[in-house]
């Protein structure tokens, strides 16, 4: 089921000394409330055969019932930003971050993606946008195909350029991954972070995708934290039990208290974004509002030192 998210997004060693000299605190906003990505809500709505976007006003009524006061939407164009703007005000929601898809491994598509991402950022910045999260698209969502060296070089170049342009506008680019970037020795993942400037490209650590992409490995997850932890400007937060995504964020396969300790030791304070999505094997015992109420309550315990 995780490829559903990807189709949705499509439409809308230690690191070097240089990395260690740039603290992610330069990127991340301070004392912002816990947020949630809209896609988690979409998965709950889809399970109930509902459409999150059919009546976004009504959907956000449920969103705020959960106790959440910050929101991470996904945008594919500027019109979607304009549509959301009055609803944020109506529901008293902040929008410190947003998610945009991008195709950066191809020169022509890369130019288009960069232009659209910059236009979205400029439209969203007056709404409070500080971090723009982007996951460069794979060759084909759901495919086992991976990018060749020339495509990786092109993608890193475009990622760096997008980050530098966003930085000029006062917005931080946060590089995001799913599992495909961890294939073939994680060559795509490492090339993006080894060949971009930490001043221009931060890291949105989607904790469970790194865990799953590395074969459900906490060893690999915490090695990633050792290598790139100082670049983390945002966390996407999800838990699994028996390697199946749970309905709520709680204890499970990933040791989140340890993650907090290790990032705090690096003096990192990321934006916290719940993304407790459902997949086909997930339990079906609780509705979206109650699930996110539970997520928020547990997150406030685990991440208390950052709130």
Automatic annotation (TrEMBL):
Protein's name according to its UniProt entry: Sugar phosphate isomerase/epimerase
Keywords assigned: Isomerase
Top-rank lineage group of the source organism: Bacteria
Domain Xylose isomerase-like TIM barrel: 67-283
UniProt keyword annotation of Chaperone present: no
Gene3D superfamilies: Divalent-metal-dependent TIM barrel enzymes
MF (Gene Ontology): isomerase activity
